[in-house]
Automatic annotation (TrEMBL):
Residues 386-402 have a biased composition (Acidic residues). It comes from the Eukaryota. This is Uncharacterized protein. Residues 347-360 have a biased composition (Basic residues). Residues 311-326 have a biased composition (Basic and acidic residues). Residues 311-402 are annotated as: Disordered.
Length: 402
């Protein structure tokens, strides 16, 4: 570059810098901020930076990651996913096929958008804030209904299993009558069903659930629905003693439990078909909890008393301890069948080595120099019968002879 061109370039750059400074000052004066504030926002704000665009490699890695990690407890590392994607001929060919690449890109964008949409409120402060906002919504709606005679409802539930937000219903008007007439459920039951659906859907998406996941979701749905209809928050489902510990105690019953599925915990069902039937029943709402009226409860109690009188097992008794009626054995106690005359090793009296040595030295002083042998001194000490020796020392030596 010649000197003239370099000079013209420097002058143009200087002029550009002057113009930029003037524009920055104008923006600062217009919006009432400092010049440094404008420069900082212009260089760091996400609105002024170029948005990162997904590439074909991102879509391929996402597809391979979904394939490798689906249903696995421990996820594969990104280096392992990258190596596996390089060896996958179908995914590598998809980079050059516009139709296949579009499908992969759409799946990646849906996954990214789903992560943004799911609100994970898990700490106490956020849960309290959400509760205050929902209470405000309800107050505003009640005020609106009082002035305009409007009717409506809305369900608000947590979006993840980790959240502590409780189901909330906002609305007014004949909402209860509407749900009972067309769905045969009250609004709280619908809110619990909606909560179970949302948390499960956000957790696993649309993929096929594993056997253990279906059992866990079904158990949670049954327990939470029971807690809602009974009004007891920390209630435990008792399948073995369902009639006495659940139905008779809380005056509730299950409607729509599949006839070909035994009334046991979903976690104890090993047959996939039966678990699928039970899972679909609770998910669709065909199986649900219902309260007993006075007439139903009276009939139920009569049948329960008749079964008891007939000798039928209506309640499985709790297993008793093996040492019932006596003292409970400690963990360090002897097991049955051991020799009771033998003292446990932990209780055996230890021989004091220092006492033994003192005893030997005292008798060695009375012997001749020729009897310095330790073994002979010990024999002399055993047979000396000195009346001035301490009784404890004699006992220690006697134990050595056993």
């Amino acid at each position: 570059m010649s000197a003239l061109k370099a000079k013209l370039l420097n002058e143009a750059i200087s002029q550009l810098q002057i113009e930029q400074e003037e524009k920055v000052m104008d923006l600062a004066n217009t919006h009432g901020v400092t010049v440094s504030r404008v420069k900082k926002l212009a260089g760091t704000s996400k609105h002024h930076r170029k948005r990162r665009v997904n590439s074909a490699q991102d879509a391929v890695l996402h597809a391979k990651s979904k394939e490798m990690n689906e249903g696995r407890r421990y996820k594969a590392k990104i280096s392992e996913i990258r190596r596996a994607a390089e060896l996958d001929d179908d995914l590598q060919l998809a980079k050059t096929d516009p139709d296949k690449l579009k499908i992969l890109m759409d799946e990646l964008e849906e996954h990214q958008q789903a992560k943004k949409d799911v609100a994970r409120t898990s700490n106490k402060a956020s849960a309290m804030k959400a509760t205050r906002l929902l209470q405000g919504f309800n107050s505003d709606f009640q005020e609106l209904q009082g002035t305009t005679d409007i009717a409506g409802f809305g369900f608000f539930v947590r979006g993840s299993f980790e959240s502590s937000i409780k189901p909330t219903i906002v609305g007014g008007g004949p909402v209860l009558e509407f749900f009972q007439k067309y769905f045969n459920k009250d609004p709280w039951e619908m809110a619990c069903l909606f909560k179970a659906f949302v948390t499960t859907y956000n957790k696993v998406g649309t993929r096929k659930l594993l056997h253990s996941e279906k059992a866990k979701v079904t158990s949670r749905t049954i327990s939470e629905s029971l807690a809602r209809i009974s009004g007891v928050d920390k209630i435990r489902m008792n399948y073995p003693n369902f009639r006495t510990k659940v139905s008779a105690k809380y005056k509730v019953k299950i409607i729509g439990w599949p006839t070909d599925v035994p009334l046991v915990s979903p976690r104890d069902i090993s047959d996939p078909e039966k678990l699928n039937t039970l899972y679909d029943a609770w998910r669709s709402g065909s199986a649900y909890w219902s309260t007993m009226d006075k007439r139903e409860y009276k009939k139920f109690k009569q049948q329960l008393d008749q079964d008891k009188a007939a000798g039928l097992e209506v309640e499985i008794p709790q297993k008793g301890r093996s040492d019932i009626g006596g003292k409970h054995r400690k963990a360090t106690a002897k097991r049955p069948g051991e020799n009771d005359t033998e003292e446990p090793p932990a209780k055996r009296k230890r021989t004091s080595s220092s006492t033994k040595r003192m005893h030997i030295r005292e008798h060695e002083s009375d012997e001749d120099d020729e009897n310095s042998d330790i073994g002979r001194s010990v024999n002399f000490a055993r047979g000396s019968g000195d009346e001035n020796e301490d009784e404890d020392e004699d006992e220690d030596v006697d134990e050595l002879d056993d």
